[in-house]
Design a protein that fits this description.
single chain, seven-stranded mixed sheet, four-stranded antiparallel sheet
Amino acid sequence: MKNLYSEDAFTGLEAAIVLIAFVVVAAVFSYVVLGAGFFTSQTAQATVHTGVSQASSSMELVGNVYGIADGAKSRLLYSNVTVALTAGGTPIDLSTMVVSYNDNNQGHNANLTYEGEACNHALLGDSPQSWCIVQKINNVTTGAMLDNNAQMVIAVGLPSTATPNTKISINFQPAVGAVLPVTRTIPGGLTPVQPIY
């Protein structure tokens, strides 16, 4: 007996089902690939923005570093360091900065205490574990924010190991930006106000 139904229709339907399955799988795969690409580009963009903010928030040393000696001129009580932003830098809040000290006479402090603005120099000599902002030059913003085209003089209390012929290192690490290392050698003979080279 002759079959009344044609198998051609079933073959076309099966082909359509397979085609739809391939299209759905390809769409899901492309969505996953595009999503991963978008995530990667957003991560790369965030990395670039972070790098730019880090690079644009850097300080530089301005002028000489001065050491203030004790009355007997046997050691330095504190040093004055003038800092400014690098060209095109973004403002930095110095109150969040970490200041560390090290010398070759076993003097070391990884985190000196911030005493605020306009501190008493005599306290720095008595308490060498601290630092403060002594003077602001051309600074518009109130507080410890270092602006563009401005300078701040920072006084850093030195320990009793800051004696003649000692190599000292003071590191200024802002919350955002590069470390500003200041390395100097205290001369053999001290004057009341001593440039340190």
